[in-house]
Amino acid sequence: MLRTELRKLLPYRTAWVIMLLFTALLAATIAGAGGVTVNGQTLGAALYALPGMWAKLAYIAGYFSLLPAFLLIMLITDEFQYRTFRQQLIDGTPREQLLLDKLVVALLLTLWGMLSVLVAGVFFGLTRNPEATFGNVFSGAAEPLLLYGIQLLGYLSIAAVLALLIRKSTPAIVALLLYVWVVERLVRYFLPDAIDRFLPIKALDMLTPSPFAQALDTMLGPTGALPPAQAAVVALGYIGLCWLLGAFLLRTRDL
């Protein structure tokens, strides 16, 4: 299963372009954000301060989570376009295995995202904190990395459902963008905070809250957002639901 998907993924030039673009944009944003000046003060010291740096890096990485999601959509829709799903069925591969193969790809992309955050964190943690050691840098990294991994897997899971439903890359990518940027935000507008915080994208975003969220809560009052630990439970529920829906689509529709 893993070997088969790697054989498809590794020679795919577009995949490498998107994954390396993700890593490069993340590193460039982290480097650039340190030089931003707010109220006459440079953010660098606060951004790279340990151990809080990891939560900030996970928040920044969240802005680029759609890139791996686009890649997964392209990989899945290519299976329909080139009829490789149909050929695998003819060769005796169960439909459930087809879905598990794509879940493996989603997990690989999640690991790439987490590894990118980890490498960036180690680099900037050591270079921007002269007194830092490897032990200091890794302190506090586990929880933000895990929460970011859940967030990225959540975006990938939604992307997988749309790809399996629509089966064409461009419409599926447009549908994902519309849902993330338009549809759910419109739905939130009509719902009270007690309900809208359980919507998929909002729950995913709460896994890596803004570094300024606590200060905003102090000034404006609590927003009602889920704490990251609770958001993780909701997100994992949505992830499971997405892949169950994907299994239903593969089982009931003609490939």
From TrEMBL:
GO function terms (MF aspect): ABC-type transporter activity
Signal sequence bounds: none
GO cellular component, one term: plasma membrane
Regions that span the bilayer: 57-76, 103-126, 146-166, 173-191, 229-250
Keyword annotations of the record: Membrane, Transmembrane, Transmembrane helix
Protein name: ABC transporter permease
Organism: Hymenobacter oligotrophus
